[in-house]
Every structure is written in C-alpha cells, then in structure tokens.
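Contributing new complexes? Match this layout with adenosine-5'-diphosphate.
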Amino acid sequence: MIVAIDGPSGTGKSSTSKAVAAQLGLSYLDTGAQYRAITWWMVHNGIDLTDPGAIADAAGKPGIVSGTDPLAPTITVDGADVSGPIRTTEVTSKVSAVSAVPEVRTRITELQRWIAESAEKGIVVEGRDIGTTVLPDADLKIFLTASPEARAARRSGELKGADVKATQEALIKRDAADSSRKTSPLAKADDAVEVDTTELTLQQVIECVVTLVEEKRAEK
Ligand SMILES: Nc1ncnc2c1ncn2[C@@H]1O[C@H](COP(=O)(O)OP(=O)(O)O)[C@@H](O)[C@H]1O
Ligand SMILES: Nc1ccn([C@H]2C[C@H](O)[C@@H](COP(=O)(O)OP(=O)(O)O)O2)c(=O)n1
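Output block (do not edit by hand):
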C-alpha cells in the first residue's frame, strides 16, 4: 500500500501522514525534510545558492538518510542528526531555490523511490510532487488544501511569537516558487482526491484519509 499525500505548506501533510501511517502500521517519509537537509548542507558548506550550476555540482555530495518510523522519524546528513537545523527560517527561505534545481530533484527522487520500494508493509509519502512524479502508480493519492489564512495561523502557532501576516507572506511566496518551477512543480495529480482542510480538525482529516486507505485496501 503506497499512499501519496501532496499539497502546499501548512495544509496538514506531515501531521496527517504520520498519524495515518502509525494507525495503519505503514512507514512514513517526509520528503520536505530531505529537501531541507540538502539545503542545510549547502548553506553549511558555503555553496552559492544564487548559482544553480554550483547547486547542481554539489547535489551528489551530502549523504542523506531518512528514518521512516512514523512514531520517531529521523533525518541525518553524513551521519549527523539535522532534524532541528533544517527547520530554521534561513533553511526555510532557501529551500525553494535549492529544490528547483533538476540535479537535486533527480537525486532526491531516486532516493525516495528506493525508500518506497524497500517499505515492506507499505508507506505514506508526503511532499509536493509525490503523486505526479515520484510515485505516479501510488495506490492512493491525496491532495490537501486550506485557505492561506488557516495555513498561516497554523504555522505561526508552531513558531512561537511569529507574526501571522509575515508568516502568511513567506508561505505564499514559497508556494508560488514551488508551483512555478519547471521541474516537477507542486501540483495535484489528475487522479488525486482533494481534501480542503480549512474547516476540518486534524482528527477529522486523519479519519478521512484512514477511511480512504481502508477502502483501497478492501479493493485490492
Ligand atoms: N486540520 C487542522 N486543523 C488545525 N490545525 C492543523 C490541522 N492540520 C494540521 N494542523 C496543525 O498545523 C501545523 C502544520 O501542519 P503540518 O502537518 O506540519 O503541515 P504541512 O506538513 O502540510 O506543512 C501543525 O502544528 C499541525 O498540528
Ligand atoms: N516533494 C517535495 C517536498 C518538498 N519540496 C520542497 C519545497 C518546499 O517548500 C520545501 C520544504 O518542504 P516541507 O514539506 O518541509 O515544507 P513545510 O512543512 O510545508 O514548511 O521542500 C519539494 O520541492 N518537493
């Protein structure tokens, strides 16, 4: 059972995917964390992020490993735990530029396909291009959406003290960059089920996705 969950920032992809995977005994992969990890390595190593050629040349260098237990997901770069550093505002503001470079996407996409193939009990993979590009044959594809106001309120709730308006502007800017890049942009697959989470609680979204997975399992 392979489940692809895509959508813009703050729609509930990570929280929903982790809970669904834990409830159904599936593995879990946060692909955004992988793009954040490669971005963190580039910042840490002084790569010029205004130069796509420099990003492409460095794309194969960091060793990225994702732990796929939904109750304790991990992410390391060359053996170091980077789960904290990949969430800084600096990485968040630079991740779209790095993840737009085709050589970065090819490398990370290969890694994602290998992780999905190796997941014996199945996996929930969340990101931006999972249903369209990474796993186009996924058993179930979900596309989560929510109003920009709801997404910004959720995000600024996490970043203690963050200004909701500034958070909303940064989020809209990142979504625009992720949606307009040439290589596998953020997009809904034609066969994805769209769930607008604006008026739903997280628990309702989880229940909705669990039901959809169980229906697919029954069909198999
Ligand atoms: N339906 C929802 N209602 C309210 N808060 C939510 C909902 N879904 C997620 N959240 C909260 O919003 C924040 C962002 O969710 P997250 O799962 O990280 O989104 P994404 O992975 O799409 O960026 C988290 O703090 C999460 O608990
Ligand atoms: N499959 C993916 C996943 C993420 N990305 C890029 C684009 C996103 O802005 C960044 C960060 O993704 P992440 O899911 O961590 O972002 P948020 O949790 O929504 O803040 O990575 C991507 O290009 N393709």
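Reviewers usually confirm one structural detail per submission. For this one: The longest helix spans residues 202-219.
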